[in-house]
Amino acid sequence: MIRPRSALAAAIYLALAACSSGGPLASGDGVFAPGVAGKAQVDNLVVGHRLMAAGEYELALDAYSRAAVVQGFNVDTLSALGSANLRLGRLGQAEGLLRRAAEEAPDFAPAWNNLGVLLMEKGEFAEAAEIFRRAFATDNGNSDEIRENLRLALSKRDAVIYDPAQENQNFELVRRADDDSIEPL
Length: 185
Description:
Layout: H1 4-19, H2 44-53, H3 57-71, H4 75-87, H5 91-104, H6 109-121, H7 125-138, H8 144-158, H9 164-167, E1 174-176, E2 182-184
Antiparallel strand pairs: 1-2
Helix pairs in contact: 2-3, 2-4, 3-4, 4-5, 4-6, 5-6, 6-7, 7-8
């Protein structure tokens, strides 16, 4: 049989031990919680690509702008910013960015392709066909999207008669994937 007085003493001892830092088995170093986690590294270019795929072009433009702050205006950020502006219908802004990206890296097929898409939007079919031809050659003909864009641009350029069926054809924007291949944007 447990005496009430010793049970009360045991309860008080346990309560006081719980209030102390670490209790009776503490090592004495005083650190019990993990440290504060550092700021997570976010690749805003990847975030922007995902937002573009989801149709959130304004948010993608914001993410690409943050990427440009971190990485600078390189061919990837210029092309991405231009593509987002193109999707938002800001053709003047998009054209400057895409031309700058294509000039900065003449071997970067996505910038050439996306510039071609912009020129098609503006109705400049002859220049667009030449730009798509350059993108196709730069990519060594490996991208189905660029090949299809070139085919459509050539058919629009060479069309003598207005064909309403061609009016609703959509051109594809592309980007560089992690393995340097081309994929739709």
